[in-house]
Amino acid sequence: MGRKLLLEHINVPGINTFDVYRSKGGYASVEKALKTLSPDDVVEEVKKSGLRGRGGAGFPTGMKWSFLAKPEGVPRYLVCNGDESEPGTFKDRYLMTHIPHLLIEGMIVASYALGANTSYIYLRGEMMPQIRILERAIAEAKNAGFLGKNILGTGYDLELYVQPGGGAYICGEETALLESLEGKRGNPRIKPPFPAIAGLYGCPTVVNNVESIAAVVPIINHGGDEYAKIGIGRSTGTKLISAGGNLKRPGVYEIELGVTVEDFIYGDDYCQGIANGKRLKAVVAGGSSVPILPANLILKTINNEARLMTYESLSDGGFATGTMLGSGGFIAYDEDQCIVRNTWNFARFYHHESCGQCSPCREGTGWMEKVLHRLEFGHGKMSDMDLLVDVSKKIEGNTICPLGDAAAWPVASAIRHFRDEFEWHVTNPSVALTSNYGLAHYADPLPVLEKAEV
Amino acid sequence: MLSVQNTDAPVTFTPELLGKFAEIVARYPEGKQKSALLPILHLVQAEFGWVSAPAMDKVAEYLDIQPIEVYEVATFYTMYFLKPQGKYMLEVCRTGPCEIVGATPIMEHIEKTLGVKEGDVTPDGLFSWRGVECLAACGYGPVLQIGPEYTFYENLTTESVDKLISDLKGKANN
User: Fold this and answer.
1) Where would you tag: which of B31, B69, B147, B158 has the fewest CB atoms within 10 A of its CB?
2) Among the partner residues A90, A250, A345, nearest to B96 by beta-carbon distance
3) Do both A382 and A395 map to the same domain?
4) Cβ of A129 and B149 within 8 Å?
5) What is the 3-state secondary structure (H, E, C) of chain A?
6) What per-residue confidence (pLDDT) applies to A445?
7) pLDDT over 90 percentage in chain A
């Protein structure tokens, strides 16, 4: 088992209350930051930690903070992104449900670093129970002098509010989230200007994922350098992985970045293998948007090296043979799952969630859903696979926000790696209605690569 | 096609509800009261069971914005009901991770048990159901939620769904 920085005390009874949380060393980072560090020092520690955005994009958090504009007399905002809607991802819900004060603590330190006096935690509207949990935690923290005016006598003021969304995946995109927080439809904004210059109410704003903000707490407590010692290369620290699908033990795991994928799926400390004694067929490693990989390619890279749970190793081989760590939404598919049906399901999701602003996404997602529907339900044509790839290419990169890419990648990757399963649906339409293509050769060992002459 | 619907029932916001509205508006800077729109619509829905056109007009008046600004938001987000629903709206996650652990059979079972199609209300006014997109509970699927508290029911089986429905019937009849 690796080190736990976020979930260390998750099983302590009453850790959701201020008193118990505090007795376990909670809010120490607020005392350390506000009393002994300048805001710039805090930013510096986060930069040194190498922390990368935990919401999916993996952009260095310290760098994002350092881009924040600081014009005189203009308020600055920190907005926490708790919209968590990426299929496969449920880590933030877990963290907020069980250890809400960790997020509040991180919000205080991060707000101090950015010079924000009002901060918002935006949660998807379906998380009403978590909204109540956080509001109670905020009240407790305020009561103890960690929020409100003149926190701990340092002269720093901070008000913290929780805002519900209305049920829209797109609001996980940071500018759509800001629109939503302003009481509007969640249509992503054209960038530039980036939120760091003109965000909430046109003021400089940083938007960070729940887990990123929570990670600030151990970074300040132990120092950025210590945090950076965990992990491999540019994948530093620990990451929450939410594992679902056909696993023996699904759930949320805090891993040190660098665990092998094989250990994560089959290890006793983690998911303990595939449920019901079946075999692994495919994995979506970082939320539904990232390319799906067959079992052989997720366990080993094309160069036959063990694949690791890091940003770099998962993306090894690019989109041809790799994928992405994304949000850490890990979905495992067993031998009985149908890739065509799953791809259709995801395409329906993106069509449903497209905000409709950009034509390639609005029209393209619907078109892909229709074509995949006919493939799944026995009316597909051999030309459909090329058609899908063509449509996906025309969406990718041609939209204001990354939802277009997110809709295109699962479709393109499914056809890239599982084309014969799609073709089988076309040639055996009636069989495909009642049975699945099965494991086929997807779990076979990797093909031996011929060594390139250098 | 979604559109806003009228209602014959009078729409009055109680002083308690207006008190909650004011508490929310106070969270935002002066002049940015429109930010309260989404949370206020949730409160309206919890009170009336859905958001009717007259209710939205009153919200617009309260926030000093145009009614269209409320309509466009209420029709964009999926959580707001634009027509009356059953007292208990069972929202079943139908996306990938829940689907591969059996969301479709759960929805078929609910449809059969309640005897109404997706989006329709049972004759006694107690239930409606629909499939919704990912609810961020992928490790505990299949899942469903019931508003306005948005309580989660996880690792569903046909037996646990039967029990839930009969419990809710009992609750409603007491």
Assistant:
1) B31
2) A345
3) yes
4) yes
5) CCCCCCCCCCCCCCCCCHHHHHHCCCCHHHHHHHHHCCHHHHHHHHHHHCCECCCCCCCEHHHHHHCCCCCCCCCCEEEEEECCCCCCCCHHHHHHHHCHHHHHHHHHHHHHHHCCCEEEEEECHHHHHHHHHHHHHHHHHHHCCCCECCHHHCCCCEEEEEEECCCCHHHHCHHHHHHHHCCCCCCCCCCCCCCCCCCHHHCCEEEEEHHHHHHHHHHHHHCHHHHHHCEECCEECEEEEEEEECECCCEEEEEECCCEHHHHHHCCCCCCCEHHHCCEEEEECCCCCCCEEEHHHHHECCCCCECECCHHHHCCCHHHHCCCCCCCEEEEEECCCCHHHHHHHHHHHHHHHCCCCCHHHHHHHHHHHHHHHHHHCCCCCCCHHHHHHHHHHHHCCCCCCCHHHHHHHHHHHHHHHHHHHHHHHHHCHHHHHHCCCCCCCCCCCCCCCCCCCC
6) 65
7) 95
